[in-house]
Amino acid sequence: MDVCHKCGNPQIIIKRKQSGQMLCQECFIKFIQEKVLRDIRKQKLVEKGDKVLVALSGGKDSVMLLDILNNLRKRRIIDLVAVTIDEGICGYREEGVEIAAQNAELIGVKHRIVSFKDYIGHTLDEIMADTGDRIACTYCGVFRRWIFNQVAREEGATRIATGHNLDDEAQSIIMNYMEGNIQNLTRIGVKSESSYEGFTVKIKPLREIPERETALYVMARDLPVHLAGCPYAGDSFRAKIRDFLKEISQDHPTIMYSTLRGFDKIKPVLKEEFSRKSSTGVCAECGEPAADKLCKACSFRNQWKRK
Ligand SMILES: [Zn+2]
Ligand SMILES: [Zn+2]
């Protein structure tokens, strides 16, 4: 009979594909929390006294992230502020915002909702109706980073934590590699830093947790989550790579880990060779960090100002 490898409980909820380890609900929750907190310590993702801005979409990954980081807040190691971006995606975002608010309230953390409309002047729906030439995820990602960076300064946050999981990170590595975006690759990692003033360190504490385990975690913890997928994500290149990696993982359960491990090994070399050194490191228009003269957000905004 299958029993929990930690406590012998016969009610197991997971057999971990990578290790074959079987766990009951309680031991799974404990195992995941300890793993993430250990990764945070090992990689020095936070220091005592940090104020961490949690990018809280209301989806399973960010909800889990907030729940686990709250352990450090309760121990008074860090302070937290939860920030939800309302991109203005009609019929989709409203529910996510609502669920994000519920989660912040549940643990008594300050929650801010900031919108594309307020920070950029347009909702994502408006931007997409206007531009057929780029996929939504590119715009959305650039603007979200831009907004989070500003809000972090407004809130006095010293870290921005996002809920990227193992699957997300393996997808990003493979995507950028296949598209030949080697410079983008140099920016992927568990912690991104820059010596430029105004840049807030970004951390990904869930980077080693597979997506299926983040889903199981929020279920096991009975946390409210927004399950709907973004209506713009459907046919993206990322979706194709996700399906491809999932399929390979069936027969090769550790393939996403090895993708990550291999990448982390070659990253220092890539960085040495390919990371672009710009003259100032800040955008001439908005003063946010930039690899070129203008940051990506400002060059996108200019593109459609000209139309
Ligand atoms: Zn157990
Ligand atoms: Zn700019």
Describe the secondary-structure layout.
Elements: E1 12-15, E2 22-24, H1 25-42, E3 51-55, H2 60-74, E4 79-86, H3 93-107, E5 110-115, H4 116-120, H5 124-130, H6 136-155, E6 159-161, H7 166-178, H8 182-185, E7 191-192, E8 201-203, H9 211-220, H10 237-251, H11 255-274, H12 296-305
Parallel strand pairs: 3-4, 3-6, 4-5, 6-8
Antiparallel strand pairs: 1-2, 7-8
The structure holds zinc ion (2 copies).
One zinc ion binds at residues 283, 285-286, 288, 294-295, 297-298.
What portion of residues belong to β-strands?
5-15%
Poorly predicted regions are none
Radius of gyration: 20 Å
* Overall form: globular
> Oligomeric state of the chains?
single chain
Helix vs. strand class = alpha/beta
Average pLDDT rating: 91
Provide an overview of this structure:
By secondary structure, this protein is of the alpha/beta class. 50% of the residues lie in helices and 11% in strands. Strands 5-4-3-6-8-7 form a 6-stranded mixed beta sheet, with helices on both faces. Strand 7 and strand 8 form a beta hairpin. It binds zinc ion (2 copies). One zinc ion binds next to strand 2 and helix 1.
